Amino acid sequence: MDSQNPSAPPRAQSAVAGNPTRSRHHTGGVIHENTRHTARFTVIGNHLTQHPDLSLLAIGLGCHIQSLPTGAPADIKSLAARFKEGTTRIAAALRELEAHGYLRRERVRTSTGRIVTRTTSCNQPGHRREAATPDCPAPQPRPAATDRTPRPRPRKALPAVPRPTRAAAAALLQQATDLLAGLRRHDPRLLLSAPDTAHLAPGVVAWLEREVTPTALRHALTTDLPDGPLHRPAALLAHRLTARLPPPYRAPAAPSPVRHPLRNCDGCDHAFRAPETQTHCRTCRAAATHS
Question: Rg for the chain (alpha carbons), in Å?
Fold first, then answer.
């Protein structure tokens, strides 16, 4: 009878729940000890948790927002009160999520006239159920194995644009919409769809708030365009609205009044303030005029 080797394990061991033993061939890397969740959990795709372009803060904030119940506050102030990163870093992370289609924010007016921010979280950018928002198009059915028709690719989210510093009035938003709709008169390649125009309009309002004239803004958007067809004109305009945004305009302060030094009047010897060319105070000059 052949002898058995007592040092050889009967089978490879894996790190599963209840058996965390590592294989002796492992030299590093993560090992998972997974236990199935049965309550209070959220399903989040690896396309978010392992996104190659999102920062770690944006990924964590995206996971947190997807775990919130409907109606929970997700504005910058509420998130800054919950986390210690501060409003500046949280606002930047929200812009990242918005640029990659995981988040959509819009300013809406309630029935009472109050302006609020409505936040829409998409767990799969480019897909939605029937009751979701129009910005997440419904997924196409998976083709059969024999169907060689290529599946349509999800529409890539547009880059984020500057936001107005205050709630934009309806008239200002309409002015921004009209300006964008008229760009095709300057270059037919700048024909925009209605959703693209709605996405870009807040960025135009941000420029108009800084006292940039519509003519100057139109010039910044339409000059020095690249040659050839523009496959995504809205993305180009979104980049220009962000990259070429001028600083806020501040009117120059009025010059400070000149404060002349004190001097003694040659007539009454009283002190008065006046340029060096004046030798008499106002009273003595008035008396000299009436004498």
Answer: 33
C-beta of residue 125 within 8 angstroms of C-beta of residue 154: yes
Q: How far is CA 134 from CA 116, 127, 130, in A?
A: 20, 10, 9
Main-chain phi, psi angles of 262, to 5 degrees: -75, 145
* Contact predicate 66/44, CB 8 Å: yes
Contact between residue 197 and residue 181 where contact means Cβ atoms under 8 Å apart: yes
* 3 state DSSP class of 261: coil
DSSP bridge pairs for 108:
116
Which residues, at least 6 apart from 225, have a Cβ–Cβ distance to it below 8 Å? 187, 189, 236
Nearest to 217 by CA among 233, 200, 198, 199: 200
Domain ranges of the chain: 42-138, 158-224+233-248
| Rounded Cα–Cα distance for residues 102 and 158 (Å) | 12
> Which CATH number is 42-138 given?
1.10.10
What phi and psi values does residue 2 have, to the nearest 5 degrees?
A: -70, 145
Q: What is the pLDDT of residues 88-108, one digit of tens each?
A: 999 999 999 989 999 998 888
Count of C-beta atoms within a 10 Å radius of residue 113: 6
Token output for 146: 């024999």
Dist. CA 161–CA 99, nearest whole Å? 9
Token match 């998972």: residue? 32
DSSP 147-212: --PPPPPPPPPPPP----SSPPPHHHHHHHHHHHHTHHHH-GGG---HHHHHHHHHHHHHHHHTT-
Give the pair of three-digit tokens for residue 14.
């894996």
- Name the DSSP letter for residue 283: H
pLDDT digit string (tens) for 15-35? 444 455 444 555 678 898 999
Tally Cβ neighbours within 10 Å of residue 195: 13
